[in-house]
Specification:
mainly beta, Jelly Rolls, 49% strand, RmlC_Cupin_sf
């Protein structure tokens, strides 16, 4: 039996505030991987105000949920402003970027295809 946790870097069987699990100081983007395999990736991010992740794409659909603050997401040239509790799906293979309008935190879930198209 595999004893390795499928969800890592976070306490199990404890009620937690997800926003408290990752923090960024000025000038930082901090990430914490909670799950990673060939099919799914779950990562928490904290962005200091003014920080960003430049334009890139993914072979999987990427779903972001803002858990604190406000972030700007640019998907295939279109801007979206997301506030706490809001979610956006960025389709696979579309270029996208992430910008911290103010300090914010998000959870990113990427679902990868069974086979690359």
């Amino acid at each position: 039996m595999n004893t390795y946790p499928y969800i890592k870097n976070i306490e199990h069987e404890k009620v937690l505030k997800i926003a408290d699990q990752v923090n960024a100081d000025a000038g930082q983007v901090v990430s914490k991987t909670l799950a990673q395999n060939d099919f799914v990736s779950v990562t928490l991010f904290a962005f200091a105000k003014g920080e960003e992740i430049g334009t890139h794409d993914s072979i999987g659909d990427a779903m972001v949920t803002v858990i604190e603050g406000t972030g700007k997401f640019v998907v295939d040239g279109k801007e979206y402003i997301l506030n706490q509790g809001e979610t956006l799906v960025m389709p696979a293979k579309k270029p996208h970027s992430v910008h911290a309008v103010e300090a914010f935190k998000m959870m990113l879930v990427v679902i990868f295809p069974l086979e690359e198209d």
